[in-house]
Amino acid sequence: MADARAVAHRSHRRLARHQPAASRADVRRCPDLTRLARFLRACRRLRHAPDARLTGVAHDAGFYDQAHFIHEFRAFSGMTPGEFAASPRVSALDVE
Fold it and tell me: I need a surface site. Which of 27, 42, 63, 83 has the fewest CB within 10 A?
């Protein structure tokens, strides 16, 4: 999980620069990595601004729309973004 958290802070372009040439294309083609990075960005935003509008959080994190955001968030965490924001004890590091 530590690797995933580190990756979430980097763009595809930055990751590709730091990877061997053979794996650069893999970084851009890894949809699960992209999904995880979006999810972790949304978690950080919800932690820093729990009263933020979900549509704004979804857009800032790179989701297509709010429905896509809620679906992906629930797939990663087992809860909705609203439940996550309302729960002071749950962090992005606690969800699987």
Answer: 83
CB hemisphere CA count around 7 (13 angstroms):
18
pLDDT tens digits, residue range 5-63? Answer: 555 555 555 655 655 555 555 656 677 888 999 999 999 999 888 888 999 999 999 99
Residue 52, CA distances (Å) to 8, 36, 62 in order: 21, 21, 15
- Length of the chain as a residue count: 96
16: buried, middle or exposed (CB in 10 Å: 19+, 13-18, 0-12)? Answer: middle
Q: For position 3, what pLDDT does the model report?
A: 54
Q: Which amino acid is at 12?
A: H
Q: Is the dihedral of CA 59, 38, 43, 81 positive or negative?
A: positive
Please name the fold of domain 2-86. Arc Repressor Mutant, subunit A (1.10.10)
